[in-house]
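Sanity check record (used in CI):
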Amino acid sequence: MPISFSHLSFSWPDATHCLRDVSGVFNARVTGITGENGSGKSTLIKILIGELEPSSGTVIRPDRVGYLPQDLGIAAERSIADVFGATAILHAIESIEAGDPRPEHFDMVGNRWDEAERLRKHLHEAGLSSLAADESALSRRLDSLSGGEAVRVALAAVLAENPEVIVLDEPTNNLDGDAKESFYHFLENTKNQVIVVSHDRAVLRRVEETAELYQGKLRFFEGNLDYYEAAVRSEQDSAARALRDAKSVVRRELKEQQSMETRLARDARRGAKFSREKRKPPIAMGNDKNRSEHSSAKRRQECKGKVAAAQAVTDSAAARIRDIEGVYIELPETFVANGTRIAEFEAVGRREIVAGPERVRIAGPNGCGKTTLMNAIFASSPRAGYVRQRIDLPNEATVMAVVGGTPQRTRDQLARLCFQNDKVFAKIGTLSGGERFRVELARAILREPAPTLLLLDEPTNNLDMLTVEWLASALDAYRGAIIIVSHDEEFCARIGVTRTIELS
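Expected output for ABC transporter ATP-binding protein:
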């Protein structure tokens, strides 16, 4: 049974509208949901799986729905066994084996005496052979794993429940190249119905149906990312032509209105002259004046109506044109001369030096220590700004409080990052993954003194495609040094990475 929903609406406690009367059915085998950061994609799927209650509307879902959340960092203290929902069973087995024969332990275990082996099998199938072979792995916390390993553990746990529908929120975040290829293979071959929220173009090119969340409305397109983008371009071209035509009609009607007023003024002057010269009897002149005034009023009303109708068509056409300005990221005007030592660190047994405005990429498979190395570089670099992979911000704090700095300067910069007006006082816990990234970026670039080194750990995770474009342009223009961890080859090329340090 597919997930269907009818007349869904959702507003946050501050009355901000997120969804407006949304209805639909996910019929395709794989549906991709796309939309700008903060458009409500994660909110929508939390409503679909029953984690959030809509303000109004209904959802019909099957009994077994698997869900992989976007922000696994929220549950970082959970163990691998917790993620699989097996901690209580494993604890009961350990208690029985230790000589505790209480009935409740046997009731908990049931017929699942091979639970540990079952979980290791799922880990192995997820490409986590080293974890599967580790006897103590099931008790390891998620925050002891790399970002990619944590995602693969969570996905393995979802698949272990054999769900009828799988709902995935940004599943390729933090995955290395091999892990991404495994996930793409899964998407192409799974018999499960999958609903996936993603900004990963490779993922969205593998879906059969695309659903776009835009300005609180959800629209379905029967095709993948390429079909969806072509359809939107066609719509925008049509809307632009309609707007040009409508503006032309408005100009024509306004010109006609001006010409009519000129004619009416001329007729009025002629009538006044006739009256002064008494060319007709007074009663006839009065009748002519009344008829003229009535005719003039009627013509003015008709002309005013035509202008208003033309303007309404123009407004309707303009409303179909999308606002694509998006985020404007302005990095500090830092200048680092060639040869200036910015950072020194040990990597794979060698002493590495970053000098001048270099762009250095740290690469390697999930779990090889990339984030650990980035943390060490940051600790030894007093003028570095750091955007972490796992963004850990206090949920109850406001955007302004977290970013800090001079209030007016901070507000100006946050406005360029799409935190305008009262949005700067939004609590971190209400923000999307992409919005949380922009807060972390603001913290990194607005520090004093301005950073001469930017450390970026998987910066394109959670970002919509337009924001990725803006970020790439801003980093390309930045005159300081950059050390980046990223599995996005295209993005690294865009920002001009000059060398790569490969960790084994």
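Residues 225-277 form the longest helix (53 residues). If this sentence no longer matches the regenerated tokens, the check is flagged for review.
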